[in-house]
Amino acid sequence: MIKNEISNENGLKRRIALLGSTGSMGTQALQVIDQFPDLFEIELLSTYSNSDLIIQQALKYKPNVVVVINDNHYEKVKTGLAKEDCKVFSGTQSLVECMTMNSIDMVLSCIVGIAGLAPAYAAIENKIPIALANKETLVVAGELMMKKSNEKRAPIIPVDSEHSAIFQCLIGEQGNAVDKIILTASGGPFRGKRVAELEKVTSEQALNHPNWNMGNKITIDSATLMNKGLEAIEAKWLFNMEIDKIEVIVHPQSIIHSLVQFTDGSIKAQLGLPDMKLPIQYALTFPTRIFSDFPRFSFTDYPAFTFENPDLQSFPCLPLAYYASKEGGSKPCVLNAANEVAVDKFLNGKIKFTDIPKIVEEALMKIPFSKPENIEEYLEVDKETRKLILC
Ligand code: MN3
């Protein structure tokens, strides 16, 4: 019965294109899929450059297509899968073209950064529902993505834990007005630190997140609170809210994944242990809930939930994201591009932690405002911003 509810109309397995399968989110998604071999099959896998892992994954999951974004790793993957009945392509454009395959029932995008934008847009254009873990897609081009999603009736189902929580809180509330959305933040590894202390923190310290097991880029974003800023913008588009009605509250235990306050003052929350496999599974099986043997949350293990306001002086990335969102147009795209470059520089030891917001702010001031109207124009703004910072 459950199988029929979540499978496609032919009663077959749901065929998944997993974009970014070798990253932290991608490998966790495969762990979820491993639990339900009767429900899902992998149609496509893609990686940026992790050739060894994608070969292993392709041998196990037998996708029809594998895409390697970075050309330098194509030959190795091609050779590694020579005996398999599997097409191997390289480059972003190939991945975009694959999003027209009729054999894909759902795209699960775990790509990191703006690289996820063009493939996600192509999938929506081809009426394929997306489970979206790639928040940058909505940060950069949320208006365009949501318009296309409505026009093509291809839903975007959030995988980000906060947005999955809000999505779950809103079920059954159609037509009821929302007062505000409350996004919870763990506060990251540097919660409570002042600017002077943040000057000296290293990337090793920043990568040591207290609650969540995530990739490098998002872990640094969590440390700067840029992640929460990006998530506020993501929520604005997903749930059609004004940015000022999205409030951030620091909740260091990361058990309440987010909340919605309705017009009567009532608040709904979604809770659970901090494990990305839960929102991944919900997005894949929505609207059905399927049994999982994930560890259960116990209130007695967490006798106190605490809350505090975010420290906007020490973590200026959060107000910068709100600023960019209010300005609109190209600003969120500039914010995102500058942040991607700055995080990369910090991870490579080239700048200080506290330089990240400075670089983002400078880019927001220097790149002239524009109103991109299509994906190409957004990608142009992205390129222009990277060029400004790198030279
Ligand atoms: Mn999140």
Structure characteristics:
single chain; 391 residues; alpha/beta; Rossmann fold; Rna Polymerase Sigma Factor, Chain: A; 2 domains; four-stranded mixed sheet; 15% strand; globular; binds manganese (III) ion
Short recap of the structure:
Helix content is 45%, strand content 15%.
Task: Enumerate the distinct ligands.
Answer: manganese (III) ion
Shape: globular
Number of strands: 11
Distance between the termini: 58 Å
| N-to-C SSE string, H for helix and E for strand | HEHEHEHEHEHEHEHEHHHHEEEHHHHH
How much is the radius of gyration in Å?
A: 20 Å
Low-confidence stretches: none
- The CATH first-level class of the largest domain comes to Mainly Alpha
Write out the strand line-up for the largest beta sheet, numbering strands in chain order. Answer: 4-3-2-1-5-6-7
Which architecture of the largest domain would the CATH scheme give at its second level?
Orthogonal Bundle
Give average pLDDT, whole number.
Answer: 95
Give the percentage of residues in beta strands: 5-15%
Tally of helical runs? 17
CATH fold category name of the largest domain: Rna Polymerase Sigma Factor, Chain: A
Name the structural class.
alpha/beta
Outline the biggest β-sheet: 7 strands, parallel
What number of domains?
2
Architecture blueprint of SSEs:
Blueprint: H1 2-6, E1 14-19, H2 24-35, E2 40-47, H3 51-61, E3 65-68, H4 74-80, E4 87-90, H5 92-98, E5 106-109, H6 117-125, E6 130-132, H7 135-152, E7 156-158, H8 161-170, E8 178-185, H9 195-198, H10 203-206, H11 216-224, H12 226-238, E9 246-250, E10 256-262, E11 267-271, H13 277-285, H14 317-327, H15 331-347, H16 355-366, H17 375-390
Parallel strand pairs: 1-2, 1-5, 2-3, 3-4, 5-6, 6-7, 8-9
Antiparallel strand pairs: 8-10, 10-11
Helix pairs in contact: 3-4, 5-6, 6-7, 7-12, 7-15, 11-15, 12-14, 14-15, 15-16, 15-17
The protein binds manganese (III) ion.
Manganese (III) ion is lined by residues 160-162, 231.
